[in-house]
């Protein structure tokens, strides 16, 4: 380990926020203090080593640095505070408290980064996380230990959606990581968590747009490391919320450019996939311990799913939620782990409802196209159009919040408002059990029995001499 009193002063270059110095015995990702005259020392991190040339990313930026600066390496990597005292606290991208609360200087610190979880210690996901959002709970379940992004575009309501999931999700601890947030977004998340009563079990790491860009690169690592420690040491079920991973990737690109690395697609570095995978793979259901579930936001510039960030993300994660025009698109969204829980740990009708609702909504989209092209519509087309409007209003809108069991019942109600039981093409035992009886259209034999009872009652009231009724279905 390099001694704290050892200074290195052979500054070779200053390129943007990257300082290059000649040194030896230094490790990648080690921290250093950069002293520039009488100014307060700036924190820096080793991002590249080539022989005895060491490149450091200066957290406070390279503005004002001179070649007369002195560098002192600490011999350790970036660390984050971990204890029960961090719950209900807000930290910046360097792990420093920014909420005005008491100092945590004496609390335990753990080094961030390191390898992901040994596959042998991973448990096959088998538990659903209820979010109260029907398009997720019913149609694309969020499964414990899943890693899944929300694909969206700038201007959509992905941050309010993410905050609502953090409030309503069935998780014991929420760890939030914000990267490149404007102050309004930071204030929104904090006040929302406080007002809804979940702040006491929440940890926030926030890098604002005006903060050093290198701190943006540390936020996911700190958030995931804290989540990992809560899961492993305290057997907690932890939900990690990260926004926005595109801002994180842009920070990697900017640092790579300042280091004069050769870019790959659209200016992003060639290791973008690896950098994203290292973070996402920390989502895990631990054998004999808790779990870490990662839900992130990935904005798509120009709504282009082939952009390098969403494109690489899609190969790593277990599906995605596609948010556009204020709705969660059932066709663009996918949860590859939902089959682990649908009908197994959820209600028996869940799978049939999910498939039938999506099939009928697809038919509604076809009917809408026929209507737009002025084709003649059949009676079924009109039913599908009505169903499509109800489906979008009751399930797709991101503002809808319905408990999971009520959402399943609402599916049956919506189907009953638009279709007869024999039009659903579902298992008869499920239709008999869950299809709601409506006036004049009670399900199956019960309707005939009810009619017979009504006839008998009318005749007895009239003393057996009332006008005879013709039985249903024609003459006897």
TrEMBL record:
Region entry Disordered, spans: 438-476
Pfam families for the chain: ATP-synt_ab (PF00006), ATP-synt_ab_N (PF02874), ATP-synt_VA_C (PF22919)
Residue ranges occupied by any ATPase F1/V1/A1 complex alpha/beta subunit nucleotide-binding domain in the UniProt entry: 132-324
Biased composition (Basic and acidic residues): 467-476
ATPase F1/V1/A1 complex alpha/beta subunit N-terminal domain mapped to chain residues: 11-75
Comp. bias (Low complexity): 438-449
Keywords linked to the UniProt accession: Ion transport, Transport
Residues of the ATP synthase A/B type C-terminal domain: 343-435
Gene3D superfamilies: 3.40.50.12240
Coiled-coil spans in chain: none
InterPro entries noted in UniProt: ATP-synt_VA_C (IPR055190), ATPase_F1/V1/A1_a/bsu_N (IPR004100), ATPase_F1/V1/A1_a/bsu_nucl-bd (IPR000194), P-loop_NTPase (IPR027417), V-ATPase_su_B/beta (IPR022879)
Top-level taxon in the UniProt lineage: Bacteria
Family indicated by similarity: Belongs to the ATPase alpha/beta chains family.
UniProt xrefs under NCBIfam families: PRK02118.1, PRK04196.1
Job of this protein: Produces ATP from ADP in the presence of a proton gradient across the membrane. The V-type beta chain is a regulatory subunit.
Stated name of the protein: V-type sodium ATPase subunit B
Lineage: Bacteria, Pseudomonadati, Planctomycetota, Planctomycetia, Planctomycetales
